[in-house]
Amino acid sequence: MNYLFTFVSTHHAMKAESYLKKDNLPYRLRMKPRTVSADCGLALDVKPEHITRVIASFDRRGLSGFTVYLPGDEPGDWRNVPVEDIRGSAEMGSEGDENRLSGP
Amino acid sequence: MVSLMELYNLPGPAIHYLDHAATSWPKPARVTEAISEFLAAAGANPGRGGHRMSLEASRRVLAARERIAQRFGAGNPDHVVFTANATESLNIAINGLLGPGSHAISSVMEHNSVLRPLFELQRERGVEISLARASGAGLIEPDEIRKLLRPNSRLIVITHASNVVGTINPVDEIAKIARETGVPLLVDAAQTSGILDIDISAQLIDLLAVSGHKGLEGPTGIGFLLFRKPLPLHPLKQGGTGSQSERLEQPTFLPDLLESGTLNTVGIAGLMGAMEDVTPEVAHESWERQKWLTELFLAGLRSVRDARLLGLPTAEGRLSVFSLDFPGQDLARIAQILDDEFGVLTRVGLHCAPLAHKALNSFPQGTIRISFGRTTDEDDVTAALDALARFSRE
Asked: How far is A22 from chain B (nearest CA, A)?
């Protein structure tokens, strides 16, 4: 079962794609399934054998602002996969948090 | 020198375009090529769909952010916010940072794109404003900024170089004051971007407002605001961003926070075309040549007896932007004759900087502004000097 990445914005999805291209990691950029909530309209499809390297690629550049899913029990369902579970005990990158702003 | 006759089969003298401070001309050939190529190959809406053309447009927008971030020392492409022009960039920063009870420091040398938003905020939100004085040459001394600091100061906004007299301000020293006091520094780089080297990380410039169509030689209608680090800033406008569409609140992350509505992708494509042609190396060569042309022009101007040059008298510390007065003469008439009879294209008036003219004793009549660019040559300078000499009285 392939992993599905969603992103807070198209900008973040494009950055993710550029990192995977640079690292020569296979992926498929696709439209986000309707049943996955929120975020922008794009998703990245990643095969299980590449998932740890994909996360490492994002971590190395400090990319955050993404969520990872696997197919759920019912057709069309998706369940959130904590990134920590994939990367072990490593912490999330901080870039997205740095860019999260609030107005006066 | 370009002949209008050759370009458009129009009557009139060969033209000497000396209004680069308003917009550069002619644009590099790559600008029109890049625009045409973008519209043909990727003319869809970036960030608004998952189809291949939208994705291609999105990729190009990211590549543009990366190129700009690298050129100006912004550490992260997220920190490049596309706008319509430097004016919009300045409005976003000024309106976004200054709330009721806050204090802003600026200078009398600013363009109305800084002064008008500031004075609007003074009227509407009770924002306090202090304007630094300028020297006789239009220079802002860092100590003048330091003297104006208050506990509630929330922004220092200074032009990198005057659009009236071309005097370059010591932004590095002003940045140190901003750093020491924790007050964000916004630099208006409308006149300097693409001409002088700017690295916002090395120079500690918190926010940089940039025009894409002047020194960077892109098309009109595209500019950007750069962040050294994200700042808590209220967006000037809200709307569709293609992200978090289920929410009724604006996204809180850059660049989406400040980029509502479809981006000017055509302008971005044209700007990238310009930046491909006018690399930093090309810009350096151009700047060296402009300094030499400045010396040539200033030397020749000393023989134009009735012309009064405002600002710095030598090529040091200035851009190739010159303001001239012919005391007692109608400057608009002179500018009209320069155009009609000599093909010398200049700009006359206040150049949207009324307080600068008050400081330089040229209000309300303004000045004739002559400004060089990358394509200006010795022939243009000679033609301008010959034409100006006609207005010295015997």
From this structure: 13
Percent of chain B whose pLDDT exceeds 70:
97
Q: Which two tokens stand for residue A104?
A: 């006066």
CA distance B347 to A20: 50
Q: Find residue B187's DSSP bridge partners.
A: B158, B208
Cβ neighbours of A31 in B, within 8 Å = 49-50
**Residue whose tokens read 């350096």:** B284
Interface of chain B toward chain A, CB-CB under 8 angstroms:
46-50, 55, 58-59, 61-62, 65, 76-79, 96-97, 99, 229-235, 241-244, 246, 251-257
Q: What is the CATH number of the domain that holds A38?
A: 3.30.70
Shortest CA distance from B97: residue in chain A: A104
Q: Is the dihedral of CA A24, A26, A30, A35 positive or negative?
A: negative
In a domain, A11, yes or no: yes
Q: Each residue of B180-234: pLDDT tens digit?
A: 999 999 999 999 999 999 999 999 999 999 999 999 999 999 999 999 999 989 9
Structure tokens at B324: 């001239």
Domain that holds residue A52: 3-96
Q: CA–CA separation, B287 vs B305, rounded Å?
A: 28
Residue A81 resides in a domain: yes
Nearest CA in chain B to A29: B50
- In angstroms, the separation between the Cα of residue A12 and the nearest Cα of chain B is 9
Is residue A104 situated within a structural domain? no
Q: What total number of domains does chain A contain? A: 1
Please, what's the b/e burial string for A52-83 (b: 16 or more CB within 10 A of its CB; e: otherwise)? eebbebbbebebbbbbbbeeeeeeeebeebeb
Between A8, A18, A31, which is nearest B244 by CB? Answer: A8
What's the CA gap between B88 and B211, in Å, rounded? 9
Per-residue pLDDT tens over the stretch A31-88: 988 888 666 789 999 999 999 999 999 999 999 899 999 999 988 899 999 999 988 7
What pTM did the predictor assign?
0.93
- Does residue A47 form part of some domain? yes
